[in-house]
Specification:
The complex is a heterotrimer of chains A (299), B (431) and C (272). Chain A has 299 residues and is mostly helical. In chain A, 71% of the residues lie in helices and 1% in strands. In chain A, strands 1-2 form a two-stranded antiparallel sheet. In chain A, a hairpin with a 7-residue loop joins strand 1 and strand 2. The two termini of chain A are 24 Å apart. The mean pLDDT of chain A is 87. By secondary structure, chain B is of the alpha/beta class. Chain B folds into 2 domains: 169 residues, D-Maltodextrin-Binding Protein, domain 2 (3-Layer(aba) Sandwich); 198 residues, Periplasmic binding protein-like II (D-Maltodextrin-Binding Protein, domain 2, 3-Layer(aba) Sandwich). In chain B, 46% of the residues lie in helices and 11% in strands. In chain B, strand 4 and strand 5 form a beta hairpin. The longest helix of chain B is centred in the first third of the chain and has 19 residues. Chain B starts with a helix and ends with a helix. The N terminus of chain B is likely disordered. By secondary structure, chain C is mainly alpha-helical. Chain C has a single domain, classed as MetI-like fold, CATH 1.10.3720.10. In chain C, 69% of the residues lie in helices and 1% in strands. Chain C has a two-stranded antiparallel ribbon. Classes of the chains: A mainly alpha (299), B alpha/beta (431), C mainly alpha (272). Chains in contact: A-B, A-C, B-C.
Chain lengths: 299, 431, 272
């Protein structure tokens, strides 16, 4: 049965207007407070300026400088490496813990609460706890390791050690968020699906692959995007815990942008780094959008 | 019509919002009717420094009725981003505090008030040459040196006694030479138990420029006399890098004592992981509280000469201030003899006035150590501070930090380190 | 109810994970109640030798904690109210309304999440000065409320509402707004709960922007205090952890109390 279209405008115009009407508040807020400063930042990236006065317009030379700057490539590598470790691991652990919390356990609510609590702590406070834990002379981690006979790990003075400390702190912080999202998704999967699968003789791994995984598809899409965005932008943990050291082994894009913007005071270069970061995140998201078949799955 | 739950929630929300709104003045712009004699003063500070500031401000206000100074305290790490953002949008304070290393950048970008026509000639003459030079740009003063600090050695008496080290230098002339200092460190290394180290150096955080002390001690420069090009690739530069690199290769310092570490040298000292640390005078009150052992102080080592870092801060007025005379008056007050003496004594910092340096000041905590630090500060020369006052100093500090990190932890050769520093300094100067 | 397979193993894993995740929090509490000297010892101590409240005394003496607490509440409440309403509208639009350019606009708006604050901080600051809101709460509220996170979450959630319900309402002649208010919104209670909690959390913990945007010390929010404790020459860890504990407590209470909601939250027609 078709609805009577009494308006003179074609339907697509009406629905477009409606759509944008609902979007209007978002568009205004984001347009004014994000896109406007973003545009201005882009203009700054085309200049050479120390922030005072107008600076000199240099076109795309800041971006050209990025290409030949070995430190820039190092921090990009570090950022990508960090993301490619933290994102899959935190999602896998999140899903694993969610499946665990979805099963029968004693005092399940208590376990769930504890797992979620780390994400309530602010990033800076988390990093400060990390400093106390990972100080290689007097931190609690090495003290415990020494007591059980494994010896000290150079969490601060070796590249891999420092990188590991940053990864571990981030995982600790993010696992709860991943678990919660997955847990909620799992609770929407009806147990009959698993029952009938089991009756038909499939084992746990098959159930995971053919029932669980597709059913949490939209959550996976959401978490993947949000985790990647968050990992690309990691700053507080590194700034507080390692300051990008030792050497440049834990420097990432945002710490490099901060150093250039606020310590060396080359604001044009710093914003160029930021724009680059925006661009690669956008490309990643666009690819995921195209590729993901289960992102909008509706039963 | 029955109200839906959502409508009820909405009403409750609106009501509480209203309550919040009416009780919080933060939603409206503060009424801005500037008093004719009002100055805004942005600074950071430790608890004792803030007490000192407030006391000095009260003194100024009572001596100048009608004047009002509004103190705006920000966290240390945020002082420059905050001031920069304010300067770039014309909401800058009238007065702010800035360390000598960052002073040049603001002066060089014409953000500061030229004090030459506003200050009495006697004011400039009251400071030591080195400190007056530190606040000059292009031959004119753009601020006043409020206080200074420099690096000397704090040592653990028990650890020294256990290692058989019975005396430390008590006068500046008899300060350890580099060789003697190395011998002391090696003796400690032999006698200390495993997991403990002879000393730690305080180049963490923003302190990378404290490495320059070694360069100055070797009678080197990092900028040439015209302050236009790098001068670090020299005999002195080589000596300084070789010597400081050896701290790490010979394990005289803990492995996490490099420039980009989140562990401060002072913490290593208080936890007795090291037997001595390099530290500024400001650390004395903390040390008195936190050290569970007896400790003393002695002078930094010397090579061809004694050398120290230009620590401490200046007070400056912004170029855009509308109350130039009042600002100059306030700055003069802040560096008056009594004000400076009180501030330095309670905050454990060093004076910049000739008369106070000559007479000596006494710290409130461990007064007998004052003369070590005042004496050490006298090794800082005008030629040194002129380089530090360069507008490129902030960027140069980052260059030093990166290159030293490579040298200490990354095994970079001295030759490459000097080349890297030279190239980095050149680039910093060109901006 | 049967315990299911591998019950013992699952319990062991649950206990182990909880211990590992809880340990740093435990450590934070230990440090908050330990005197400063104890942090500097080289022996292993898992609980404070001398339980003390001195760290808390210090921070209450140094900072106007009740004032800052009130500021944080005021800002967080307004931001959350604004963000949740704006993003619910947008999420609904992207999930169920068909209009030209929907995908592209969604991606463009999503891209606003991909910009680190440090990059636009100076430009943002100049904007709020130009708008004349510098030094008021609005300088924090408006930029913070401009967040596409809620829009993304809302879209994924609302997609789960069966189309048939919406279509049925349309057929009855309801316009989009009516459908939104009377059909979709009541089904979104779990989403609203989750979005409210997450927005409250991130706004509550935000410090970098409020520090720059709020001029006067009296207007500062609670987390900024943590920055003050990172002194020029090292940190007072005892006071830092005490402060972190204080500022986190309200959020912990909220989360524990509403945790059930999270889980029920996405169920049935949630992010599946």
């Amino acid at each position: 049965m078709t609805t009577l279209n009494t308006s003179r405008r074609p339907r697509w115009v009406r629905s477009t207007l409606t759509g944008y009407a609902f979007l209007a508040p978002s568009l205004v807020l984001l347009g004014l407070f994000v896109f406007l400063p973003l545009g201005w930042a882009f203009v700054i990236s085309l200049k050479q300026t120390n922030g005072f006065g107008d600076g000199a317009f240099v076109g795309l030379s800041n971006y050209g400088r990025l290409l030949t700057d070995p430190v820039f490539w190092r921090v990009t590598f570090n950022t990508v490496l960090f993301t490619s470790i933290v994102v899959p691991v935190s999602m896998a652990l999140g899903l694993g813990l969610a499946m665990l919390m979805n099963s029968v356990l004693p005092v399940r609510a208590l376990f769930r609460t504890i797992i979620v609590l780390p994400m309530v702590i602010s990033g800076v406070a988390t990093a400060l706890i990390g400093v106390l834990v990972y100080d290689q002379n007097n931190g609690i981690a090495n003290k415990l390791l020494r007591v059980i006979g494994l010896g000290s790990i150079p969490w601060q003075s070796s590249g891999p050690g420092a990188f590991a400390s940053v990864v571990l702190v981030t995982l600790w912080w993010r696992i709860g968020f991943n678990m919660i999202i997955y847990l909620a998704a799992l609770q929407g999967v009806s147990p009959e699906l698993y029952e009938s699968a089991r009756i038909e003789g499939s084992n746990a791994r098959q159930q995971l692959r053919y029932i669980t995984w597709p059913m949490v598809g939209p959550s996976t899409f959401f978490l993947l995007i949000m985790n990647v965005i968050h990992s690309f932008q990691v700053f507080d943990v590194i700034f507080v815990l390692t300051q990008g050291g030792p050497g440049n082994s834990t420097s990432v894009l945002v710490t490099y942008a901060y150093t250039n913007g606020f310590l060396i005071r080359d604001q044009g270069y710093a914003t160029a780094i930021g724009i680059f970061l925006l661009a690669i995140t956008l490309v990643f998201t666009a690819i995921q959008w195209r590729v993901s078949r289960t992102r909008d799955l509706v039963e | 019509m029955q109200m839906s739950r959502r409508q009820v929630l909405g009403a409750v929300g609106a009501f509480s919002l209203g309550a919040v709104l009416t009780s919080c003045a933060g939603f409206v712009r503060p009424a801005s009717t500037p008093a004719t004699g009002e100055l805004t003063f942005t600074t950071w500070g430790s608890d004792s420094e803030l007490v000192g500031f407030r006391k000095a401000i009260t003194g100024f206000e009572s001596a100048n009725p009608g004047a009002k100074i509004t103190l705006n305290v920000v966290p240390y790490q945020q002082i420059y981003p905050t001031v920069d953002a304010q300067l770039q949008s014309n909401t800058a304070p009238d007065i702010f505090r800035v360390d000598y290393r960052n002073f040049g950048r603001y002066a060089g970008s014409k953000q500061l008030l030229n004090l030459e026509p506003l200050l009495d000639a006697s004011v400039g003459a009251s400071f030591t040459d080195a400190l007056w030079r530190a606040v000059q740009f292009d031959g004119k003063p753009y601020g006043v040196p409020h206080h200074t600090d420099t690096t000397a050695i704090l040592y653990n008496k028990a650890a020294f006694a256990a290692a058989g080290i019975t005396s430390v230098p008590t006068t500046l002339e008899t300060a350890w030479t580099w060789d003697e200092f190395e011998k002391v460190a090696l003796t400690l290394q032999r006698k200390l138990p495993a997991g403990k180290y002879p000393f730690a150096y305080n180049w963490q955080g923003q302190g990378a420029a404290r490495w320059l002390n070694w360069l100055f001690q070797a009678d080197g420069r990092f900028l040439d006399k015209k302050l236009r090009s790098p001068a670090i690739d020299s005999e002195a530069g080589r000596a300084a890098i070789d010597f400081t690199k050896s701290f790490f290769t010979r394990k005289l310092v803990p492995a996490n004592n490099s420039v980009k570490s989140s562990t401060y040298a002072s913490d290593l000292f208080f936890s007795e992981t090291v037997a001595m640390t390099f530290a500024g005078a400001f650390l004395i009150p903390d040390a008195a509280k936190l050290a569970n052992f007896e400790w003393g102080a002695t002078f930094s080592p010397q090579d061809k000469r004694g050398g120290g870092d230009l620590g401490g801060n200046a007070l400056v007025a912004t170029a855009g201030t509308t109350k130039k005379t009042l600002a100059a008056k306030f700055l003069t007050h802040m560096v008056g003899q009594k004000t400076m003496r009180d501030f330095c004594a309670t905050s454990s910092l060093l004076p910049t006035r000739k008369d106070l340096v000559d007479k000596g000041i006494e710290f409130t905590v461990r007064p007998e150590l004052s003369k070590v630090f005042v004496g050490q500060a006298s090794t800082v020369r005008a030629a040194d501070t002129a380089q530090v006052a360069s507008p490129a100093m902030g960027a140069i500090t980052t260059v030093l930090s990166d290159q030293l990190e490579q040298a200490f932890i990354g095994g970079q050769s001295t030759k490459d380190t000097l080349a890297g520093m030279t190239a980095g300094i050149k680039q910093a100067l060109s901006r | 109810m049967s315990r299911g397979r591998h019950y013992g193993l699952r319990v062991a894993v649950a206990i182990a994970s909880s211990l590992i995740l809880a340990f740093p929090l435990y450590w934070m509490i230990v440090v908050a109640f330990s005197p400063r000297q104890e942090l500097l010892t080289t022996e292993l101590r898992l609980w404070p030798q001398h339980f003390t409240l001195a760290n808390f005394d210090r921070i209450f003496a140094s900072f106007p904690i009740p004032t800052w607490f009130g500021n944080s509440v005021a800002i967080a409440v307004v931001v959350t109210g604004l963000t949740v309403s704006v993003n619910l509208l947008a999420g609904y639009a992207f999930a169920h309304l068909r209009f030209r350019g929907s995908s592209v606009v969604f991606l463009v708006l999503l891209s606003t999440l991909m910009l680190p604050l440090q990059v636009i901080m100076v430009s943002e600051f100049q904007l709020i000065t130009a708008l004349g809101i510098y030094g008021t709460y609005w300088a924090v509220i408006l930029p913070t409320a401009a967040s596409a996170f809620g829009m993304f979450l809302a879209r994924q959630f609302i997609l789960g509402i069966p189309r048939e319900i919406i279509e049925a309402a349309r057929v009855d002649g309801a316009g989009s707004l009516r459908v939104f208010l009377q059909i979709v919104l009541p089904l979104c209670k779990p989403l609203i709960a989750v979005l409210t909690l997450l927005t409250l959390l991130s706004t509550w913990n935000d410090f970098a922007w409020p520090l720059i945007a709020l001029k006067q010390n009296e207007l500062f929010t609670l987390p900024i205090g943590l920055l003050y404790l990172q002194g020029q020459f090292g940190s007072d860890y005892g006071a830092t952890m005490a402060f972190a504990l204080l500022s986190v407590l309200p959020m912990v209470v909220l989360f524990v109390a509403f945790q059930r909601y999270f889980v029920q939250g996405f169920a049935r027609s949630g992010i599946r």
